[in-house]
Design brief:
Layout lengths: L1 H6 L21 H12 L6 H9 L3 H26 L5 H9 L2 H36 L11 H18 L4 H29 L2 H13 L3 H10 L10 H7 L16 H32 L15 H44 L13 H19 L3 H29 L3 H24 L2 H24 L5 E6 L1 H14 L3 E4 L7 H15 L8 E7 L7 E10 L2 E8 L2 H16 L4 E4 L6 H11 L4 H12 L8 E4 L1
Parallel strand pairs: 1-4, 2-3, 2-6, 3-5, 6-7
Antiparallel strand pairs: 4-5
Helix pairs in contact: 2-8, 2-11, 2-12, 2-13, 3-4, 3-12, 4-10, 4-11, 4-12, 4-15, 5-6, 5-15, 6-7, 6-13, 6-14, 6-15, 6-17, 7-13, 7-14, 8-12, 8-13, 15-16, 15-17, 20-22
């Protein structure tokens, strides 16, 4: 999902799949892992410093908790998400399927708000940390000190400019960046452990400080568990991992319904990324705690937001340290690019399909400008401070992982797998509790997400109301019997008369009475043939749909049935399809609805029923401006 947009940035508003159902195209799973790794692995640039600032001497233990939650919580959840949502939609699409109608749509809007928080803070936090690595480098001019906000804004603007111009070769760039970054981190960790071996006193000092501060091992573990929510941004790569699935090369026998090879590759990607990150997190959490004075992690300290860079300069010299800073700045900036691509793919995937976004929301460049402006605002509000933004980042990450855990648990229950359902429910409970603790301790994240949610819902509602009068059917298909009805009338009588009728008991008496009333009030000739059209309400929250018209003959009356989310929109779509199929402009006949017009209009907006005749006429008027080609609406 995420980098599909990045691959196609050169053609704004257009998209294509890198992988085909039979497995051709796409890239090897390990190359795609680098793509998700620019987000996931880049957190090594700031995660050890945040862990040390949050947990102090308990940082290695708190990091171990993070690794255990990663391997035994997030990894099993997302391996299952990869199996059940293999087309890049991720866990949000699973919940959308499990919770239909308006409840599901509203939940998706809320989750989109948290996803927007996750991705937007990824852009701003990564840029802010890249700035910290630039400013702290000894070769950088001293006058840049204190220029963190302008530098971060420049990096964000540069990111937006790249996406406005075009963004190709994302995977190749990611492979180079991730390979170089992990190699440099490995060198730093080897040098750090060598220094620990050469100076074992640092271990004794750490153990002494740990015992003095936390004499009770049980209490120490409890504190490590309590600070875990502050480290949760170390889980940021999993939703991205399933989002990039369409980029993975599948097997020869893959189908669109069951891309087994792609699923297998995605599971390898998730497992390899989690294991690699776990090794680096454990190593960095230990050596940074052992070798860096605690005061250096505080705001203004040399290791604040850049612990491994501090060690790179201290242990391997300023030249290597500068090389490390350069690689870190590049991968952090590219992590922002990954997040931008995710936003550009996520918003058009859901909101326009729900009828809940302006038309321009499907175009790339306007969205890039909007997201860049929001990133500017966040950077200014948080003053490009990595620590200040970490709470909001963790909130977005935790909410998405919690929703994924709940989706997987509900899916296992629906599939009658009680053991798996209980296991995933326990994982969901752990992440839910962690999310609540994080929100209580650092409410900035939920406030930012709340603003995103409010903005998304407001724009969605303001967009859905006027777009409700659009022709919403993607396609209309007639079965053979329905085709025979309309072709017969068009060819024999050069007229197709359609009587709209609510589904009822289906008796001959009911149809006879309806036809008698329509002939009387709408002046249909007694010899004229008519076709009854019945719209059966489906999920009224769906905006776009494919309509299938089914014909039947009952006691001499010809009836066509269609299932749709909105009665007037479905009727209008069927009428225009009859015109296009036969070349004859049809007529449709209604009775006036009883009840208050205002309440009927509200029923239409929410339930797809209500003020049928005038709304059908308005949908037709907007869909077909040429009066002579527009079906006539008769109301008696």
């Amino acid at each position: 999902m995420l980098i599909e947009s990045a691959e196609t940035m050169s053609a704004p508003g257009r998209s294509r799949h890198a992988n085909t159902p039979d497995g051709r195209g796409g890239a090897s799973w390990w190359r795609v892992m680098c793509l998700t790794g620019v987000d996931y692995f880049s957190t090594l640039g700031y995660q050890p410093a945040i862990a040390a600032l949050a947990a102090g001497v308990l940082s290695p233990i708190a990091t171990l908790v993070l690794v255990l939650v990663t391997l035994f919580g997030a990894l099993p959840v997302y391996r299952q998400v990869a199996k059940e949502s293999p087309h890049g939609e991720g866990s949000i699409a699973m919940l959308e399927r499990l919770l239909p109608w308006w409840g599901g749509k509203l939940l998706v809007l809320v989750l989109l708000g948290f996803a927007a928080t996750d991705f937007m803070i990824t852009i701003t936090l990564s840029a802010a940390d890249a700035t910290a690595h630039i400013v702290e480098n000894p070769f950088v001019p001293a006058w840049l000190d204190g220029m963190e906000v302008p530098l971060t804004l420049f990096l964000v603007a540069l990111l937006g400019a790249v996406f406005l111009k075009g963004f190709r070769g994302a995977i190749s760039i990611a492979v180079v960046l991730v390979g170089a970054f992990l190699a440099l981190n490995a060198v730093v960790l080897v040098a750090a452990f060598a220094d620990v071996v050469a100076h074992p006193v640092v271990v004794d000092d750490w153990l002494g400080a740990l015992t003095a501060a936390h004499g009770d091992p049980v209490a120490a573990i409890a504190i490590a568990l309590l600070v875990f929510p502050r480290l949760a941004l170390g889980l940021s790569g999993f939703e991205t991992g399933v989002a990039v699935m369409p980029q993975i090369r599948g097997a020869a026998g893959d189908t669109e319904e069951r891309p087994t090879g792609r699923i297998r590759g995605a599971r390898r990607l998730l497992t390899a990324a989690a294991l690699t990150m776990s090794v680096f997190l454990l190593g960095s959490g230990l050596v940074t705690t052992l070798l860096i004075p605690q005061e250096e992690f505080l705001p203004g300290g040399a290791a604040n937001g850049r612990a491994l860079a501090y060690l790179a300069h201290a242990l391997l010299g300023e030249g290597f340290g500068t090389l490390y800073d350069t690689a870190t700045v590049l991968i952090l900036w590219f992590a922002g690019a990954s997040a931008m691509a995710g936003l550009l793919n996520l918003v058009p995937r859901y909101l326009p399909r729900y009828g809940m976004a302006p038309r321009w929301a499907s175009a790339t460049r306007p969205l890039v400008i909007v997201f860049t402006a929001i990133a500017f605002l966040i950077t200014i509000v948080f003053e490009a401070d990595v620590d200040a933004q970490s709470g909001a980042y963790a909130t977005g990450v935790l909410v998405l992982i919690t929703s994924a855990s709940i989706a997987v648990a509900l899916s296992a229950r629906r599939r009658h797998r009680p053991g798996a359902a209980i296991g995933f429910a326990v994982i969901a409970a752990v992440f839910l509790a962690t999310t609540i603790v994080n929100v209580v301790e650092r409410p900035d994240g939920v406030r930012i997400a709340g603003l995103f949610i409010l903005g998304i819902v407001t724009v969605s509602l303001l967009s859905r109301v006027p777009r409700s009068f659009q022709l919403r059917a993607r396609s209309v298909t007639f079965d053979e019997r329905a085709l025979s009805f309309i072709r017969h009338d068009a060819e024999r009588h050069r007229a197709v008369r359609v009587v709209a009728k609510e589904p009822g008991s289906g008796t001959a008496t009911e149809f006879a009475e309806k036809l008698r009333n329509e002939r009387r009030f709408n002046g249909i000739p007694s010899t004229a043939h008519v076709i009854f059209l019945q719209v059966h309400i489906g999920d009224s929250s769906d905006f776009e749909e494919d309509l299938v018209v089914v014909g039947e003959e009952h006691d001499g009356y010809r009836i066509v049935h269609v299932r749709g989310g909105s009665v007037p929109n479905a009727i209008a779509a069927v009428l225009l399809a009859i015109r296009d199929e036969t070349g004859v402009v049809p007529d449709v006949y209604f009775e006036w609805n009883e009840g208050n017009p205002a309440s009927n209009m509200l029923r239409f907006l929410v339930f797809g029923t209500g003020e049928i005749a005038p709304v059908t006429r308005e949908v037709l008027r907007r869909a077909e401006p040429r009066r002579g080609l527009r079906p006539d609406v008769h109301v008696g």
